[in-house]
Structure formats: structure tokens, C-alpha cells
């Protein structure tokens, strides 16, 4: 049956459209199961009725004409129960409903299984047989369930393609078709979709021997030179919008084109007799397979860069005509796999949004998008890319959602959000230099999370009081080798000087998990539970010592450095780290640097650390909660995975209880505690954290004005009451609704993102 299953899935994947796919399904399943009838009923989201869409064995004239509600017939029963129903005599069942136009009175045996995709019932797949004595056995039922599960994604994609084209299942005009992905960069964009495709198809290149390798080498080197020039032009075009750290991402591309990198391996294969295009394909595919098998999110994004370079080189080798893309005034760039180079091809000022089928919030494109302030949605796994070119699109970078062919009402709704966001930030500018103090005098420090210099510039303009988290891995990630002590020192000095005399908290190198270095690959089956953070740097003290030495030297004359250790799970890791830090401190002092010993703290982001607050507090100067990772570990959810991202919730009762325990235990031990993560940048979350007793909140710069405005307008007793109310609740969604209601009643409704649009939209 496995080969039959694969054959059916392959055929359906190649279908022209939804109707063609459904007809292939009923025909092939009927033959495979040797049954008289196979039919597919799909649930129309507009009418909430099951419609007979294809059949083999019933009267064809019934297709599109027979429909029933979820409360009618055996079809409705299968859909509502969301499980198979297997009957020897369907006519004897109390839910049986007879439709004379189908001719199904001849068939007694019935087996129906639901078609479910991402918890949404799409329809029902049915087989029927004339003999009442035949009961479909367990093997046949299992086969039909397997077929249904395998085809659910294909049907969802085909259905979405039809809807995007403007037609519902009933042939009526469709609007406000929504697709859910992962938020890559915040904001709302309204514009026209422009689908960009890879310049060439490496997979289609055949292997071919050549008689003149030297001529092939010359041709290939010309292609390398042309691509290098293209990338330099793109980098120059984007330069006015980016800081040097962000521009360095394009240096990654250029370094891959060095003679001793990718071109060197291609030249070697050409020398062995392979033609240039074939050699390029072999090398690129080898690189891509190597990176994609590592399972590390950031390394997978580097595979995207390599694939993109390969396609560009191939395009020049093939000397194909480059298609001229027309970019409208408000361009929403859409691709199966967006790359940084694609962004630079859009004329300046015309790029308003980005949508990518592949990728995550940690991809190069997402990093650049946040730096440029372009709303972005990634991981749109069910989106029919080819249908979005030239269509009106709304990109909701807050919720990780896009809408195609929006109605006038939905467009107006999101335009109001755009206008309100702009007006709101203009109105909050006056708070920049004012302290964050409640009406009854409770003081909370508002800090920012940074990594790129763009973050620093934006943070200073929004009134940040310091840096609560500087991600030191950024200088490592944009290099092709470990940065030297002097290079690190320059990066760190820039951050320290920008905020002096306010404190800058620098997290030591935190690689592994969803962050990796191409020149220091970590290949693990489960990287989030593996070798990451402090575990890596303690195993490689030569990396840790150089970094700490660079930090200490960079702080000379400023003395505003704080060092924070990531991914701490036990006391021994802290003691070993402190030993190395004190050793470097005395060595740097002996070299003549006039520095003070910085405060050292740990990040609380592993559940084990939550229960060791007192022990950790006795050894460090401060604690800082990494709420994003802590939430991820507590809930066992990868928030960058679109299939389970909806389970990630910062307001989960377990998360709030853990955060409250951390704050109470830290204060009992007399240790200051802060938090850095998305929860701190949410106005409602910030109120709860303040009520718990957190001394400082660190967030993205864009969130700071809203949080400051809310905290300055409330008293601490009101916040503590709200905290007490929500701690008694057991649902994250109810907790979030309770917080939003309290903020709206207090006059802060303008700071809240609406949960849904006013129009009825079909969610795909």
C-alpha cells in the first residue's frame, strides 16, 4: 500500500487545480481500495455546509449540487466527531440522510474519514460498497485515514489557490483570505504583491563532461565577477538605510565568492572534467545538504544564502535574459525564499512589506527587515506564492498574518492601525526624557535589547535608560571567523559609549539552539536541549577569555559594563565563569588598564534555574530573566515553528507563576532582578511584571514609549490587583483578555493591538 500511497500523493501534487486534485483522489482511491464509490465532500467556510465536490460511483450530476450542514447526515457526523465512521449498513444509522440525486441508495457499506489540516476540518473522504455484508476492515480504514492525512495539506493549498484567485468553493467572489505564519518584523503594511523567483534552477542542470576545462574556468570566473558586482551594487543601494553591522551581511555573500571559498571548489570540479554549470550545481547542493541536515535554525538560513548565490551564478552562466521586474510605489515583496539581495533590488522608498514561505524570525532577511522597519511575515507554509503577484495584500507583522484581496472594510481597518501607530509615536515623543514612575512613586527602569547599531540609535531616540541585553553574538554571526579581540573591543566600545554613564549589560556569547556560526558548526538532533550558551564557552575558554578581555578593555574610562552569563542551569557553571572573569580582570589590570570590576549576573531562562534563585543570588550581582527562552522551555514549544507557534503564549499560567516566583525569591535574597523578552515590551505584560516586583524591564526600542506611558499613568496598587486577578485564572487566552479589558477600562485601548478584524475572513 505504501507505493500506492506515494503514487496517489505524487499525482495529486501535480494537479492543475483543486477540482483536478479531487478527481484524481476519488479515482485513484476507488481503484486502490477496490470499492464501488469514492467521494469527497468539502466544507465551504462561507456557508458552513459540506458540498459534494467529486465522486467516482455516484451520479456525476450531483457534484456541486448536493450539500448538507454539519448537523446533517453521516458526512456531518464524521466532520463533527472528527473521527472515522465505519458502517456495514449505513441506511440503518439514525443520522443517515438520503439524497436521490446521488443514486447512493444502492450502496450500504460506508466508511468516512475526516480531512483535517492544522486542526481545521476541510471535508470528508468517503468510500461505499453495494454489498451490506462487506465491512471495510481495519487495514482499509487505516489506509483511508493515512490518505486523508497525507492529502490534507495538498487540498488546503489547492483550496487556498482557488480562494486567492477570487473564487470560493461555490464559485462566488472571495475576499479577505488570510494566511498565518510567524512574525518576522513588527508593523502593518498595505501594498501590491510582487512575487520574485530564483534567477535560475540549479536542480535542472545536467552533469556533462567538457573537453576544454580552461575555457569553462574562464566562463565561470566571469560569472563570479558579475555576481560580485551585482551584490556590491545592491549593498550600495541599501547603504543609506543600514548601519555598518547590517551592511556586513552582504559581506557574507562576497566572502563566499572568495577564491578559497565556493568558487575554489567549483574550479576543482571543472578541472576534473565537469562543465561549469554542473560543477556549480554539485558544490551548491553539497553545501545546502550539509547545512540543512544540521537541524540548526540559523545554519539553515545560511543554506538559503548559498542557494541564492548558486542561482545567481547559474543565471550568468546560462546568459539568460534577466526579467525586468516592475515595482509599484507600495511593494510587498513575496517569495518562496526571500534573500537579503532581493531586498536591495526594490527602489528605495517603495518597499513596504515582506512575505516569505520559508524562513524564521532569525533569518538574515528578518534581521534586515527589523533594522529597516519593514513589516515582515515568515514561515507561510500553506501559501500559494504564484497567485499573489499583482494582488492587493495586507501584511500584519504584529500577528504574523497576511490578507489577500482585502475588502474595503478590512483595508480601512488596517489603514486606521497604520495611522494610529504613526500618531501614537508622535504623541509619545514628549515622554522621552521623563522617568518611568507610577503615580504613587514606584520607579521602574526601562532598558532596551540591542544587537545592531541601528537598535542603539532608535533606543536613544526613544529615551532608553540603558541596555538590558546586548547580544554579543551579532559580531560573531556577521563574520566568517571568530572576531579578534580588537574587533570585539571596537564593537563593545561603541555600545558602551553610546549609553554612558548608563549601564550596558553584555551577554557573553550565546550560540547554539537557533543561533549558530557557519565557521563553528554545531550539529545536534535537538539543538535547543544541547550544546549552547555558557556550555559552549566554558568548553572553549579560549573564546570566553578573549571576549571578556575585549569587554573589560572596552569599558576603560566608562565603567558602565555589566556581564551576563546565558543558559545557566547550575551553580558550578557560575563559579567556573566567575573564576575566568576574575582571572582576566587581574590580567587586564596588570597590563595597565584602569578599569573597575564589572557587575556579573546570570540569565534565568532554563526551568532548573527558577528553583535555584537563592543559590545563584549568593554568587552574582544581579539576575535577568530571558522570558522568551524560559517560556519556550516551560511549554516545550519552538515559537519559530509555524505548526506549533500558536501554543507559545507569554501569558500562560505556568509562565506567570514562574516569573512571580523568580521575583519573590530574588528580592528575598536581596538581589536586583530584571527581565528581557517580548513580555516586557507588551504594555499589559509590563504592568504585571512591575506588580511582581521586577526592578527593570528590557525590550525592543519600539515598545518603550507605550510601556512608559502606561506605567506613568497607573498606581502600583492597581497593578497588584490586576496581577492577583489573573493569577487565579487557568487559561492564557482568558488572562490576555482580562488584561486587555483592564487596560481598555483604564483608558489605554489605543495601545492594544486588535485581536481580529471587523470583517469575516476565511482563514487558510
Report Rg: 29 Å
Instruction: Give the distance, in angstroms, between the N- and C-terminal Cα atoms.
Output: 30 Å
Total tally of structural domains: 4
Outline type = globular
Summarize model confidence as the mean pLDDT: 84
Give the uncertain stretches in residue-range form.
755-764
CATH class of the largest domain: Alpha Beta
Q: Main beta sheet, described?
A: 8 strands, mixed
Pfam family, one: PEP-utilizers_C
Family: Belongs to the PEP-utilizing enzyme family.
Main location: cytoplasm
Domain GAF: 17-165
Features:
single chain, alpha/beta, 4 domains, disordered C terminus
Describe this structure in words.
This protein is an alpha/beta fold and 764 residues long. The chain has 4 domains: 1-165, GAF domain (Beta-Lactamase), CATH 3.30.450; 177-196 and 325-423, 3-Layer(bba) Sandwich (Glucose Oxidase, domain 1); 202-318, PtsI, HPr-binding domain (Enzyme I, Chain A, domain 2), CATH 1.10.274.10; 436-602 and 673-751, TIM Barrel (Alpha-Beta Barrel), CATH 3.20.20. The strands form 3 sheets. The chain has an 8-stranded mixed beta sheet with strand order 7-14-13-9-10-11-12-8, sandwiched between helices. An 8-stranded parallel β-barrel has the order 15-16-17-18-19-20-21-22, surrounded by 7 helices. It has a 6-stranded antiparallel beta sheet with strand order 3-2-1-6-5-4, with helices on both faces. Mean pLDDT is 84; it is low at 755-764. One of its GO terms (biological process) is phosphoenolpyruvate-dependent sugar phosphotransferase system. Belongs to the PEP-utilizing enzyme family.
Amino acid at each position: 500500500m505504501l507505493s500506492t500511497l506515494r503514487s496517489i500523493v505524487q499525482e495529486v501534487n501535480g494537479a492543475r487545480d483543486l477540482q483536478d486534485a479531487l478527481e484524481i483522489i476519488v479515482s485513484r482511491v476507488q481503484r486502490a481500495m477496490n470499492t464501488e464509490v469514492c467521494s469527497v465532500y468539502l466544507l465551504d467556510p462561507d456557508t458552513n455546509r459540506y458540498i459534494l465536490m467529486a465522486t467516482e460511483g455516484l451520479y456525476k450530476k450531483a457534484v456541486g449540487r448536493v450539500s448538507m450542514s454539519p448537523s446533517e447526515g453521516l458526512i456531518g457526523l464524521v466532520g463533527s466527531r472528527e473521527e472515522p465512521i465505519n458502517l456495514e449498513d449505513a441506511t440503518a444509522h439514525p443520522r443517515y440522510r438520503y439524497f436521490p440525486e446521488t443514486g447512493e441508495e444502492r450502496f450500504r457499506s460506508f466508511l468516512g474519514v475526516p480531512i483535517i489540516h492544522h486542526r481545521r476540518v476541510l471535508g470528508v473522504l468517503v468510500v461505499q460498497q453495494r454489498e451490506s455484508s462487506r465491512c471495510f476492515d481495519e487495514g482499509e480504514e487505516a489506509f483511508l485515514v493515512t490518505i486523508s492525512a497525507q492529502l490534507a495539506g495538498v487540498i488546503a493549498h489547492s483550496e487556498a489557490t482557488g480562494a486567492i484567485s477570487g473564487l470560493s468553493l461555490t464559485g462566488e467572489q472571495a475576499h479577505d483570505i488570510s494566511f498565518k505564519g510567524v512574525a518576522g518584523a513588527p508593523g502593518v503594511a498595505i501594498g501590491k504583491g510582487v512575487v520574485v523567483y530564483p534567477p535560475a534552477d540549479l536542480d535542472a542542470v545536467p552533469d556533462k563532461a567538457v573537453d576544454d576545462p580552461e575555457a569553462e574556468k574562464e566562463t565561470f570566473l566571469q560569472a563570479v565577477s558579475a555576481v560580485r558586482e551585482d551584490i556590491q551594487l545592491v549593498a550600495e543601494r541599501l547603504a543609506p538605510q543600514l548601519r555598518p553591522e547590517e551592511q556586513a551581511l552582504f559581506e557574507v555573500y562576497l566572502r563566499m565568492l572568495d577564491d578559497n571559498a565556493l568558487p575554489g571548489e567549483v574550479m576543482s570540479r571543472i578541472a576534473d572534467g565537469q562543465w561549469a554549470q554542473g560543477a556549480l550545481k554539485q558544490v551548491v547542493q553539497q553545501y545546502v545538504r550539509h547545512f540543512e541536515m544540521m537541524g540548526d535554525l540559523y545554519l539553515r538560513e545560511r543554506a538559503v544564502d548559498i542557494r541564492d548565490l548558486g542561482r545567481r551564478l547559474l543565471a550568468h552562466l546560462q546568459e539568460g535574459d534577466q526579467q525586468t521586474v516592475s515595482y509599484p510605489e507600495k511593494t510587498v515583496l513575496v517569495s518562496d525564499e526571500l534573500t537579503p539581495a532581493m531586498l536591495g533590488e526594490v527602489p528605495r522608498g517603495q518597499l513596504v512589506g515582506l512575505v516569505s514561505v520559508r524562513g524564521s524570525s532569525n533569518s538574515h532577511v528578518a534581521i534586515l527587515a527589523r533594522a529597516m522597519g519593514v513589516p515582515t511575515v515568515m514561515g507561510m507554509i500553506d501559501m500559494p506564492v504564484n497567485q499573489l503577484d499583482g494582488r492587493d495584500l495586507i501584511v500584519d507583522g504584529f500577528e504574523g498574518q497576511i490578507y489577500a484581496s482585502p475588502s474595503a472594510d478590512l483595508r480601512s481597518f488596517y489603514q486606521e492601525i497604520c495611522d494610529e501607530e504613526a500618531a501614537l509615536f508622535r504623541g509619545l515623543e514628549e515622554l522621552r526624557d521623563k522617568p518611568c514612575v507610577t503615580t504613587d512613586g514606584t520607579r521602574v527602569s526601562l532598558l532596551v535589547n540591542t544587537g545592531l547599531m541601528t537598535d542603539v540609535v532608535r533606543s536613544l531616540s526613544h529615551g532608553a535608560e540603558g541596555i538590558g541585553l546586548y547580544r554579543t553574538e551579532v559580531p560573531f554571526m556577521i563574520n566568517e571567523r571568530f572576531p579578534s579581540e580588537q574587533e570585539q573591543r571596537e564593537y563593545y566600545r561603541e555600545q558602551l559609549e553610546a549609553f554612558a554613564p548608563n549601564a550596558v549589560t553584555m551577554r557573553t556569547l550565546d550560540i547554539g539552539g537557533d543561533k549558530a556560526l557557519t565557521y563553528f558548526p554545531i550539529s545536534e538532533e535537538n539543538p535547543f536541549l544541547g550544546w549552547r550558551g555558557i556550555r559552549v564557552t566554558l568548553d572553549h575558554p579560549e573564546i570566553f577569555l578573549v571576549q571578556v578581555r575585549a569587554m573589560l578593555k572596552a569599558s576603560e574610562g566608562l565603567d558602565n559594563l555589566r556581564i551576563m552569563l546565558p543558559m545557566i542551569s547550575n551553580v558550578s557553571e557560575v563559579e567556573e565563569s566567575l573564576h575566568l572573569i576574575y582571572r582576566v580582570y587581574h590580567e587586564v589590570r596588570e597590563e595597565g588598564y584602569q578599569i573597575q570590576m564589572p557587575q556579573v549576573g546570570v540569565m534565568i531562562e532554563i526551568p532548573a534555574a527558577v528553583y535555584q534563585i537563592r543559590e545563584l543570588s549568593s554568587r552574582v550581582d544581579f539576575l535577568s530573566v530571558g522570558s522568551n527562552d524560559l517560556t519556550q522551555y516551560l511549554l516545550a514549544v519552538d515559537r519559530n515553528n509555524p505548526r506549533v507557534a500558536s501554543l507559545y503564549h507569554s501569558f500562560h499560567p505556568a509562565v506567570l507563576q514562574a516569573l512571580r516566583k523568580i521575583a519573590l525569591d530574588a528580592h528575598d535574597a536581596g538581589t536586583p532582578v530584571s527581565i528581557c523578552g517580548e513580555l516586557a515590551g507588551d504594555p499589559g505584560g509590563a504592568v504585571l511584571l512591575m506588580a511582581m516586583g521586577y526592578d527593570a524591564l528590557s525590550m525592543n526600542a519600539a515598545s518603550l514609549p507605550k510601556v512608559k506611558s502606561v506605567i506613568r499613568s497607573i498606581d502600583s496598587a492597581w497593578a497588584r490587583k490586576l496581577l492577583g486577578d489573573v493569577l487565579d485564572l487557568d487559561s492564557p487566552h482568558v488572562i490576555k483578555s482580562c488584561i486587555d479589558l483592564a487596560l481598555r477600562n483604564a483608558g489605554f485601548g489605543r495601545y492594544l493591538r486588535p485581536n481580529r478584524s471587523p470583517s469575516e475572513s476565511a482563514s487558510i
